[in-house]
Amino acid sequence: MIPLITHTPRLLILAASRALLTAELHKPQYFPVLLGAALPADWPPGEYDREAMHYFLDQLTAGGRTAAGWYGWYALRKATDDTPRTLIGAGGFMGPPDAEGSTEIGYSIAADWRQQGLATELVAGLVQQAAATGMVRQLVAHTDADNLASQQVLLRNGFEPAGHAPDGRLRFERAVEPAETTA
After folding, report:
1. Taking the model in full, what pTM does it have?
2. Right CATH number for 5-175 from 3.40.440.10, 3.40.190.10, 3.40.630.30, 3.30.365.10?
């Protein structure tokens, strides 16, 4: 079974569930309660929009338990003495890996939480999650040519430029080594 929670030093990264996505889309007043976190004022951020939410919900509904962990993930800033646990971003995979072990990741951080290294930490958590599955051999990511911050996040996480996607965005790739298991 795929782990549905990943921890990084400052983040709890939680796999989206049908219940969370349904609340986010249709009962937003319950979403932060179910999530156990405060929401930023500009939620949802960036490319994580209603279309992405519907896509993740549709995929989780169609795929059942085997789809869990292969789509959306929520990035929650762990509580500190100064701030409560807060939803700061979203990321995830565009689905399970293909026959060659390749899957695509994406991520978005809420405006108030940018330029603090949290996107880098979120992507590191997603790489860690991909390795933990033992199924992913390569991660792919795309970003706009003018999004230098996103490019830096990918480079800091071991991604390398790999040309352009058909839509003109920049393509980045990274090999993934399976996580070592302890017996």
Report:
1. 0.94
2. 3.40.630.30
CB 3 within 8 A of CB 128: no
The 3-state DSSP class for residue 161 equals: strand
Domain ranges of the chain: 5-175
**SS3 call for 164:** strand
Tell me if residue 142 falls in helix, strand or coil. Answer: strand
Q: Report the mean per-residue pLDDT for the chain.
A: 94
What number of other Cβ atoms are within 10 A of residue 26's Cβ?
A: 10
pLDDT of residue 58: 96
Q: What's the rounded Cα separation, in Å, for the pair 165 and 114?
A: 26
Return d(Cα 161, Cα 134) in angstroms, integer: 24
Residue with tokens 């951080």: 109
Dump pLDDT digits (tens) for 44-102: 999 899 999 999 999 999 998 889 999 999 999 999 898 899 999 999 999 999 999 99
Distances (CA, A) of 151 to 62, 90, 93, 122, 158: 33, 17, 18, 14, 11
